[in-house]
Amino acid sequence: MINRVVLIGRLTKDPVLRKTLNDKSVVQFTLACNRNVSKDGEQNVDFINCIAWNKVAELMVQYLHKGSLIGIDGRIQTRNYQDKSGRTVYLTEVVVEQQQFLEPKSAQHSNENAQRYNHTMQSNFNEPNGYQDMGNYQKDTVDISSDDLPF
Q: Which residue from 72, 76, 80, 81 is spatially nearest to 93, judged by alpha carbons?
């Protein structure tokens, strides 16, 4: 069986670190992920509940804030608990196993910088790592005929 989730989105709130009784670090957060544009031309957004533990949680609190763009890799988990009225509440969330910060440090403190960075990443998609100036980097072209392809 496979239970794997990979998401890219923005944090909807500043992450808040909590500790369990066993002194484990935990952060629960919501990730806003864009979905394909609807027929009306509007962008749809999914708000996905996530949970991170231990070192991943501590790094999130240390380096991320509301609006930070991150990539996460994890698994879907469904759990339940009894609320104060005795009802069973079911919760589905992504348990984060790995994360990647997808913005440069300078962009993490300003939404304006983040928007500029994202625009640069989209407009320069064919450049390596999204950078316009790679110093001594030179683009090499390789001619490959369809006979050379294995498929």
A: 76
